[in-house]
Amino acid sequence: MHLIIQGANVETADLKQLAKLSGANGIEQIAPNVFRLAAANASAEIEALCAKAQLDFAFVPQSQTLNQIGLVVMDMDSTLITIECIDEIADMLNLKPQVAAITASAMRGEIDFAESLTQRVALLAGLEQSALQRVYDERLQLSPGAEKFLATLQARGIKTLLVSGGFTFFTDKLKTRLKLNYTASNVLEILDGKLTGKVLGTIVDAQGKADWLKRIRDEWGLQRTQVIAIGDGANDLKMLDEAGISVAYHAKPVVRAQTTYAINYSGLDAVLNLFAGSE
Fold this sequence. Notes:
Layout: E1 2-6, H1 12-22, E2 27-31, E3 34-37, H2 44-53, E4 56-60, E5 71-74, H3 76-80, H4 85-91, H5 96-107, H6 113-122, H7 130-138, H8 146-155, E6 159-167, H9 168-178, E7 182-191, E8 194-200, H10 206-219, E9 227-231, H11 237-241, E10 245-249, H12 253-256, E11 261-263
């Protein structure tokens, strides 16, 4: 296995200590602040050192390349983008603390996602539709490295699916802006230019996300091993479980404990460094 180390600031002393702890036979810089330690072995001390130094680490098979991947599936809120859209919408009604508390509880897996979404959207009843555009224009930002990440996937012909417990107002815009192949999310009911506080149709919840991954995977005749899934909250776990390679991105502990890799400090493009020859 290779040990991939990356972060905002990778100190030489930390690299040497990690090489010693892992028994690696060499250190190679593969990108700015990204290093590959060859023929490395796992050690409990590696995680502790990396956490202290705020470094991301991953043990990856030497043969792992993006050439083996056909589909990447991503969550939207706090994954592809830096915000939770519903929390920012709620802020337009001065209800962000109440809604954000429910969001956080759902992401930790403490309450059912569909139930939490119904509760949160109900609080938005009466809000002008124009507030959604304000959130998109004024508050929505892509996660660091997102554009580089997606451009690399697209250059290699890898399909992309953005699947979200959020709303089509945002996923539709991101699909066009980022040239995504597929998006799936929830539809807010709007009457006379105002939110009614209801969601139309079946809610895209944890199982819904997993079902969308399987649908697109099967449509392209791909194997589980050819799919990467990336998410941050408990409602992503079923989706992540359907992928051969799962990535917890700046995620809750319950997610980090159940994924192949975790990116805690670096940008979304850090996922590329887990694959040899990905540049």
